[in-house]
Design brief:
single chain, mainly beta, 0% helix, 51% strand, globular
Length: 124
C-alpha cells in the first residue's frame, strides 16, 4: 500500500514563500512520477506541477510557472513544491500524487495515489 504524507502548508502573506513536502512509502519511490495539484473552494482540482521518475524533467501550469518549483529526492522518498511570490489566488488545498509505470503525468485521472491534502492560505 502506497502512502503519501504531506506537510508544510499554512498561512502566509502575499509575496511570501512556502515549501510543501510529500513523503512516500510502500513502493520504490524512484519508479514514481509525482505531481502536485490544488483545489480551491467551489472549484475543480487543477494541475500545478509534475516531475518525471528520475527528476530530470518538470512541468508547470502557466499560472505558477516561474514562481513554483517541484523537486524530487529519491534518496529521501520525498517530493517538494517550493512556492515563491505567493498570491491570494494560490489559496487552496494542495495535494501530492504518485503514479507508477509512466514517465510523467499531468492530469488528475492519471494518478494512482493521493496525499491527504494540505491547506495553503495566502492573505492580501
Amino acid at each position: 500500500q502506497v502512502q503519501l504524507v504531506e506537510s508544510g502548508g499554512g498561512l502566509v502573506q502575499a509575496g511570501g514563500s512556502l515549501r510543501l513536502s510529500c513523503a512516500t512509502s510502500g513502493r520504490t519511490f524512484s519508479d514514481a512520477a509525482m505531481g502536485w495539484f490544488r483545489q480551491a473552494p467551489g472549484k475543480e482540482r487543477e494541475f500545478v506541477a509534475a516531475i518525471t521518475r528520475s527528476g530530470s524533467s518538470t512541468y508547470y501550469a502557466n499560472s505558477v510557472k516561474d514562481r513554483f518549483s517541484i523537486s524530487k529526492s529519491n534518496g529521501k522518498n520525498t517530493v517538494y513544491l517550493q512556492m515563491n511570490s505567493l498570491k491570494p489566488e494560490d489559496t487552496a488545498v494542495y495535494y501530492c500524487a504518485a503514479v507508477f509505470g509512466v514517465q510523467i503525468a499531468t492530469r488528475t485521472h492519471e494518478y494512482q495515489y493521493w496525499g491527504q491534502g494540505n491547506q495553503v492560505t495566502v492573505s492580501s
